[in-house]
Amino acid sequence: MVVGAFPMAKLLYLGIRQVSKPLANRIKEAARRSEFFKTYICLPPAQLYHWAEMRAKMRLMGFRAEAVKPLNEDAAAELGAELLGEATVFLVAGGCLVLEYWRHQAHQRRKRSERQAAWEAMRDEVGHLALALEALQEQVRAAPAQSALEELQAQMREVRAGLCARDPPSAPRATPEE
């Protein structure tokens, strides 16, 4: 049984995606522990997400949301860490998707160029065969026509008949008996 080449690139991408989840969890933990990370990296996106979510919910329920109360710092830090972890997984998966797309496009370009080269080779071969056909057709035209060949054969028969008429075959001689 023949098995194709194992798709190592796909396995590598899957491995990277699996590694990205623990990486995202570590980033979440670092965000919860570090004051700088929490204040400048996690809180602003979390507050923005909360603001957009609350305005959308209020509008869906038919209210006008003019002012949205911000989240407290702990809840915002937790939401920001979750957003950061999910963004990490999403970016890694998106990067893998882009890499796979580029790899597929390179494969398609390679196949297209191979097909183009094969097409060009066939066109060249057809050109050479057309030239050979023309040469053979010229040889056929240059060769004596079939009627000329038949005339030559008829002349040969006449010559043989003439030769046979002038030289009658000698009679067989009797061999002396002992």
Largest sheet, in brief, is:
none
| Overall morphology | rod-shaped
The total count of strands amounts to: 0
Give the SSE order as H and E letters: HHHH
- The number of distinct helices, counting runs of at least 4 residues, comes to 4
- Arithmetic mean pLDDT: 82
Amount of beta strand: under 5%
Q: Give the end-to-end Cα distance, rounded to a whole number of Å.
A: 87 Å
Counting helices, strands and paired strands, the structural category is: mainly alpha
**Unreliable residue runs:** none
Q: Radius of gyration from the CA trace?
A: 47 Å
Helix content: over 70%
Key terms:
178 residues; mainly alpha; 4 helices
Structure description:
The protein is built from 4 helices and no strands. The chain is mainly alpha-helical and 178 residues long. The protein is rod-shaped and about 135 Å long. The protein starts with 7 loop residues before the first helix and ends in a 12-residue tail after the last helix.
List the helices and strands and how they pair.
Elements: H1 8-33, H2 35-61, H3 73-142, H4 146-166
Helix pairs in contact: 1-2, 1-3, 2-3
Short description:
The protein has helices spanning 8-33, 35-61, 73-142, 146-166. The protein contains 4 helices and no strands.
